Amino acid sequence: MNPATAQDRPVTLVEPHAHAWSPGEARARFRAGLPGPTAGVAAGHTQANLISVPADWAYDMLLFCQRNPKPCPVLDVTDAGAWTTPLAEGADLRTDLPRYRVWEHGDLVAEPTDVVDVWRDDLVSFLIGCSFTFEWALTEAGVPMRHIEQGRNVPMYVTGRQCRPAGRLHGPMVVSMRPVPPEHLGTAIRESGLLPAVHGGPVHCGEAAGLGIADLSRPDFGEAVTAEPDDIPVFWACGVTPQAAVMASRPPFAITHAPGRMFLTDARDEQYRVA
Amino acid sequence: MNPATAQDRPVTLVEPHAHAWSPGEARARFRAGLPGPTAGVAAGHTQANLISVPADWAYDMLLFCQRNPKPCPVLDVTDAGAWTTPLAEGADLRTDLPRYRVWEHGDLVAEPTDVVDVWRDDLVSFLIGCSFTFEWALTEAGVPMRHIEQGRNVPMYVTGRQCRPAGRLHGPMVVSMRPVPPEHLGTAIRESGLLPAVHGGPVHCGEAAGLGIADLSRPDFGEAVTAEPDDIPVFWACGVTPQAAVMASRPPFAITHAPGRMFLTDARDEQYRVA
């Protein structure tokens, strides 16, 4: 996997009032060059992972997502070449994220702030649900978010669990981890379970070794978080999984968001809540 | 739309003890020639709509399903040419349904009991969630199912609401209707909402005209059901929608299940329940 980059800095809100921005306002700021991250921006609105692949890889990607719905819940898929989505009026997927990653044959080749120059007419873009959505629900329900308390990006780990492959696409499941106090465990599981469009309930609780993770202090993405003594590590499938599939499967070209620099949609988190 | 066929007869359990069969036992009986329908068979196990299209239509179909998740919740997609699925050990999708429909350029050309002779190596098969699953949940929760009380197939209607198109595929949303007593309405909405993989909560309640349905006594598929005086018509998105898309979009070839003659999976209904 790629080493952590300069993007994996502590999460601090980009501007003091960014949580109160409308999604459109946030997109305009990011388009104008504001660097992100997007954590806490336009509170209550759904953020999405982006992955764009050439049209002849789109079926494999869509099938990969269908076969692995917990890490890869699809919120929208564009037509080939299109940079618009019904999830965000007036948005331009090529410019409105704070930062992108450009991939060639599975290698990270650039981290630009827009992708207008490298855009291709055959790119199909997938917007994938993001755990930022269920973090709001958990916070509302009183579950402490240790990484937010500590001003850090959530830690993410490449697991030993392989996704179900689809055509040429294969790769490991990536998870995010949040330490949860035992008295909040039921709430955390129940509340995230009501949001299947943003990864749903956890895939594992307790020993990291159960997922083939050797050391919680060394995440593959994001930053390590300090747990309280009684906290139980809770692992959710993570939207970075399609990026891991790109690294493992090496399509000739792909564009993704940079970690923590998500796409702001106009959708409200609660519209993905099942009940 | 095609007129109702001989398949749309009153629903009666195929054999007295069919509800207690295992899914594998049920598939073996149907493979051996038992005609169906599958309502009530292998109780508690998930039944699925089948639609098989040539590989060069598979991306459009998968995208159509992703864009219209309420009528088209995808439970599994096979590799091209494969007639197996991880949802049902040892099953053969070409023989294990009681009856099929074969389509050429959008026209119904045959209703055989197996499709071994017309199978093609480029067929990709989609298994789509079926409302039989939430009917069990509703019955368990005490909601009366009028059509079952009356021994009829559930009535289905082609609506005036168009699905979001995907590539060459377009068509109207098809709904099923169940009359629900007002005191059970909340339960019916809540319980079905917890099963998003099998159409989730209703798309409409009350006046049929709101969906562009002219006459509830004349369903497009299945049979009309008699409502009690205070009952409210409740409409759920229906897995016959992909069949309507085939009729409207006319792919050169397709195979589907015959109405009411579903595919029995080994999955248990509760595993699709969100919480």
UniProtKB/TrEMBL annotation, chains A, B:
It holds the Pfam family D-Glu_cyclase. InterPro entries: D-Glu_cyclase, Putative_hydro-lyase, UPF0317. It comes from Streptomyces ossamyceticus. This is Putative hydro-lyase ABZZ21_16875. Keywords: Lyase. Coiled coil: none annotated. The keyword Lyase applies. Belongs to the D-glutamate cyclase family. Its EC number is 4.2.1.-. The keyword RNA-binding does not apply.
